[in-house]
Amino acid sequence: MTGQNAALFPEENTPQFSLGGDLHLRVKDSAAKKIALLYRKGNLIKMVNLSDKVAKKLFVVETVEFGAMKSYLATALQISRQTVDNYIETHKRFGVEGLVQGYTVSDSKNIHKQRSLHRKHLPSGNKARQTTEMRYQDNRREEEKAPKQLTLNMSFDEEITAKVEPNEQPFSENHDWEATRYAGCSLYYSALISEWGWLQSVIKYFGSGWKIFAVFMLMSALNIRSIEQLKNTRFREVGIVLGMKSLPSKSKIWEWFYSAADLKLSSSLLKDYFQHQIKAGLVGLWTWFSDGHLLPYTGKFNVHHSYSTQRQRPVPGRTNQVVCDNSGRIVDFVIEEGKGQMKEAILATVEKWLPDLPARPVMVFDREGYDAGFFSRMIKADQPFVTWDKHVNSSKLSELDEGVFSTKFTFNEKEYAVFEVEKSFTHKFDDGEIHSFKLRHIHIWNKKSNRRTCGLAFSEPCEMDLEECTKAILSRWAASENTFKHMQNRHPFHYHPGFRLSESEKQDIANPEIKTKETVIKRINKSLSKLYKKLSMVNQIIRQDGNPRANSSYDSIKNEIDSLTSTLKQEKEEKKQLPERVDVSNLEDYKSFKTIDNEGKNLFDFVTTSVWNARKQMSDWLREYYDHDNELIDLFYAITYCHGWVKSTDSEIVVRLEPLQSKKRRIAQEQLCRKLTSLGAQMPNGKQMVLEVGESPLRKVCPKN
User: Fold this and answer.
1) Per-residue pLDDT tens for 368-386?
2) What is Dmax (Cα atoms) for the chain?
3) pTM for the complete prediction?
């Protein structure tokens, strides 16, 4: 119901209201409808058409549950505070049905008749006193029995803490100020613990195995490409930042890794992490971008092939199917053997998280997903999507008059002009059902580069307008693509610790006999082409009686053409009878396929994903204190690469970063550290993490003469 009549890209001048609890509300008012857009920490988490009274009531109740202040919400929606309380009380006592229909069961519009029908079922007396009494009784029940926690618990409870021995817990050692080159990594620690419950989840599943995840976090933060490269770090300086006495030797780190991987808990860990992101509003929920990324394999074993876009050829490896939101935060990922099935992964991802979503997100994907059958399945599932048109006639597009591109806008500092028509599709299913449908055919003109192309969209469930659809397809590709290009430069994205291989369940390959037949068919067609050309240059000789001359060159060529045509037909029929794929175990001179165990890769990518999303969040916070967007990312990395000092006491872990030289950058650095400190990141032993900026506490001050 919510989010289906709203704009995904509101204008900047739309009024914004702060509701408290990191919530902000924008109200977009137009002649046709009035749209409310709810944001948490800058991420859009809910939309609603306020013209729909039922949707408005539900929106008020859910927004208060998210943590909005009732008075602020009432002011933003231009309703009274009492109305907000009434909606909440009605929903609490009578549920959604009571909120939608009230106590009215009859279809009659006569108020007196409705009251007479329900009078005997309603309590009599002063309603205000009755409500006060009911609330008093509710408060007493709440005091006697603590309310259930509706959100994820971000603190360390006794059950989680008990899984780690006191001397094995993070930062169990107390020490005075010590210098370290890796103090800036503590920013990731603070954000992940306070916002994502990262360390809580790790200890919940792996207990004392949290140490290998802390090491992986350091590798992701500092772009250390392998466990072997950790030998170049200072072990004690790393240890005091990660909460252990010292980083151990390489063999011990590998022991930590295999101990964690052998538990086979990566799927449960990832599910909890991704679910928390969605429920806490840490990722966007309205536009999801799906893309596959090659994980190459260069070993000696025989594995299935994926596809390298850069090399434009199949290469051994796997495919990481990743879903991101509009800001580049990773929503979900799954590693598939070989090329993978992007279409199946898109549908599976939406279905997996649909119970936690307010509505189906708009899925955006590239030309790999262009398929009438896939489009048909998406439409039948009522799943909105946007993609590129795969078959574009560039010459016809260039001939279009400029005047037909009626809708104009600027996106990423580039001017675009677009218009749309409809494109028809027909798909026949295996059971014989024929599905005919139409998609929005969007013609896009990039005025800066003077290039034209087309896109396709199905947007009925969310009613996106033309500009919104175009911006969606332009948001994650071409000049706007930065998630994985940047990630590969700044993070060890392709690293796979601890390769383990086993027999693959997929022992089939494309039938090699089909390729042989195709080669034969191609050769016959080439010969036929030559014979037809030769036949066109030979004149048929006619005898005096009017009949063609026998055994002439013309007849010889024609007989040869007939023979090859018959052979071609036979070869095509034989090709149709061949199976498309065959099991290699039934063939000679073929090695069986191996599959790479993804457990270790999932654990490492869990950390890489966490660090990447935390970087995105902290960059957004830093943007509030620094107004040069083109320098923002460099400033963030400058802060996280800062040297500093660490002190651990009974109650605090104090991390002091060396100040940056530029005054403006130093002020932004201090503000970010204060922001992270205010989040209250806490260790299992109760120690609070404090981040600050200042001079060295170890420097000796010379006494004055």
Assistant:
1) 899 999 999 999 999 999 9
2) 135
3) 0.73
Measured CA to CA in angstroms, residue 145 lies from 89, 141, 245, 386 at distances of: 20, 6, 42, 49
What end-to-end distance do the CA atoms of the chain give, in Å? 77
- Angle between the N-to-C axes of helices 186-196 and 198-206, in degrees from 0 to 180, rounded to the nearest 10: 80
Of 53, 5, 54, 55, the residue nearest 30 (C-alpha): 5
Output the CA–CA distances (angstroms, integers) from residue 584 to 317, 512, 579, 592, 690, in the order listed.
18, 10, 13, 7, 59
3-state SS, 463-506, equals CCCHHHHHHHHHCCCHHHCCHHHHHHHHCCCCCCCCCCEEECCC
AA letter at 355: P
**534-589 per-position pLDDT tens digit:** 888 887 767 666 676 676 788 888 888 999 999 999 999 989 888 888 777 666 66
SS (H, E, C) 496-560: CCCCCEEECCCCEEECHHHHHHHHHHHHHHHHHHHHHHHHHCCCCCECCCCCECCCCHHHHHHHH
What are the Cα distances from residue 165, in Å, to 169, 205, 208, 630, 647? 6, 15, 8, 46, 22
The pLDDT tens digits of the residues spanning 435-482 come to 999 999 999 999 999 999 999 999 988 878 899 999 998 887 655 555
pLDDT single digits (tens) 400-434: 999 999 999 998 889 999 999 999 999 998 888 99
Distance CA 199, CA 682 (A): 10
DSSP symbols for 233-257: S-HHHHHHHHTSSS---HHHHHHHH
User: Which residue's structure tokens are 């000679």?
Assistant: 588
DSSP state of 51: T
Q: Give the pLDDT confidence score for residue 41 in this predicted structure.
A: 74
Residue 395: CB atoms within 10 Å: 7
Q: What integer pLDDT is reported at residue 59 of this predicted model?
A: 86
Task: Tell me, letter by letter, the H, E, C secondary structure of 131-196.
Answer: HHHHHHHHHHHHHHCCCCCCCCCCCCCHHHHCCCCHHHCCCCCCEEEEEECCHHHHHHHHHHHHHH
Q: What is the gyration radius of the CA atoms in the chain, in angstroms?
A: 33
Tokens of 341: 């099935």
Pick 506 or 362 by higher pLDDT: 362
> What gap in Å lies between CA 569 and CA 567, rounded to an integer?
5
More confident residue, 703 or 323: 323
- Token pair 């800058």 is found at 42
Buried b (16+ CB within 10 A) or exposed e, 23-53: bbbbbbeeeeebbbbbbbbebbbbbbbbebe
The two structure tokens encoding residue 631: 């320098």
Nearest to 363 by CA among 372, 354, 355: 354
Query: Which tokens in the block code for residue 644?
Result: 């500093």
Cβ atoms < 10 Å from Cβ of 632 = 16
- Least trusted range by pLDDT, from 137-141, 185-189, 390-394, 605-609: 137-141
Q: Residue 577: which H helix or E strand, with range?
A: helix 553-577
Q: Is 405 helix (H, G, I), strand (E, B) or coil?
A: coil
Query: How many alpha carbons lie under 13 Å from residue 523 in its C-beta half-sphere?
Result: 8
Q: In angstroms, rounded to a whole number, what is the distance separating the alpha carbons of residues 558 and 567?
A: 14
